[in-house]
Design goal:
This protein is mainly alpha-helical and about 325 residues long. The protein has helices at about 5-30, 35-55, 65-80, 85-105, 110-135, 135-140, 160-185, 185-195, 200-205, 210-235, 250-255, 265-280, 285-300, 305-330, and strands at about 145, 235.
């Protein structure tokens, strides 16, 4: 049995993901652990927003609401009911999926600015609920602190920052493989079709509403997963996680990295987090630097950092691959 073609196909499918995460692992060797952990979680947070905007055409300023749902569901479990962080993460995933299914049928019927505004309103409502209305449960601005409540877990003790990095690294690898798989499926093509020409998609027999709803649930469940990871990593959750001032963060990250690209959220998270940490030490209002830089990147590259670099990298890699193949043919 010739396994050569099968292995080559598997490598062609995985090499980009493996290279991206090998670079993240390399960053761990030279950069502080909290910085790399934040990049991993922020990337998972941003990829759902990137999928909505790049594949479905939904720009969402309400991602902090779904982030807070996952974070608070995990926090409630670990503060009031249990001690196992793995179960807490599962609670966060379930809560994120339930919340997306609850509001999704209403939200996905809206398009363009209306979708963005209604999600922004949801983020403000969730912030007010966590800060004021549910303060007896959420502890208001003081937040829920449960770091000492969590017990050690077998195999990977994710209460330890170093082992949490390994866990988040593996989770990120699975998330990126899942979204790459979606890109290669009919569902991924339908998501793009509902953004470009929904009439033709309906003519082919597909439901625009169902496709948008499925994409909405998938993206925001991923966002809730990032919230759960934040909760376990920090050992605390406060209403600040869904503050109105943070609603544009994931959108800025994907614009920096490249809207709708698979690796844009990683590149954007590295750029955004790095600039925030470096520039904030020099200038108090560091956002004043991010804004003009974002405008320059969008005007120069239109597709963000990764969207601009990707064609050049592919050209270099495939040119080398073709040159090597030609050399083998000549040798034969």
């Amino acid at each position: 049995m010739n396994r050569g073609p099968t292995l080559r196909k598997a490598w062609a499918w995985w090499w980009g993901i493996l290279l991206a995460f090998m670079l993240i692992a390399g960053m761990r060797l030279v950069l502080p652990l909290p910085f790399v952990n934040e990049i991993l979680i922020f990337s998972i947070y941003a990829i759902g927003c990137s999928f909505l905007l790049g594949k479905v055409g939904f720009i969402s300023f309400g991602q902090p609401a779904y982030l807070a749902v996952g974070a608070y569901a995990t926090a409630f479990y670990l503060f009031y009911f249990g001690t196992n962080p793995y179960i807490g993460i599962l609670w966060g995933l379930a809560a994120g999926c339930a919340a997306a299914l609850l509001v999704g049928p209403l939200f996905v019927r809206l398009r363009s600015d209306y979708f963005a505004l209604v999600n922004l309103a949801l983020a403000v409502i969730v912030f007010y609920l966590m800060q004021k209305v549910l303060a007896p449960i959420t502890k208001g601005d003081n937040g829920l602190w449960f770091l000492t409540n969590m017990t050690s877990t077998p195999v990977l003790d994710i209460t330890q920052p170093q082992q949490f990095f390994i866990f988040a690294f593996l989770v990120g690898l699975v998330v990126w493989a899942f979204y790459k798989y979606l890109d290669d499926t009919i569902f991924g093509a339908c998501c793009l079709a509902t953004k470009i020409n929904e009439d033709k998609l309906q003519f082919l027999g597909y439901s625009n509403f169902r496709i948008r709803l499925a994409a909405f649930v998938i993206a925001n469940t991923t966002t809730a997963l990032a919230g759960s990871l934040y909760a376990v990593y920090l050992g605390a959750v406060s209403p600040e996680i869904t503050a109105p001032s943070r609603t544009a963060d994931p959108v800025i990250v994907i614009l920096l990295g490249g809207v709708g690209t698979l690796y844009g959220p990683i590149v954007g998270s590295v750029a955004y987090t790095g600039m925030k940490d470096v520039i904030s030490k020099l200038i108090g209002n560091w956002e004043m630097v991010i804004g003009p830089l974002l405008v320059i990147i969008m005007l120069a590259g239109e597709k963000g950092i990764w969207g601009t670099l990707e064609p050049w990298l592919k050209n270099v890699l495939f040119r080398r691959r073709n040159t090597a193949a030609d050399d083998r043919d000549e040798a034969r």
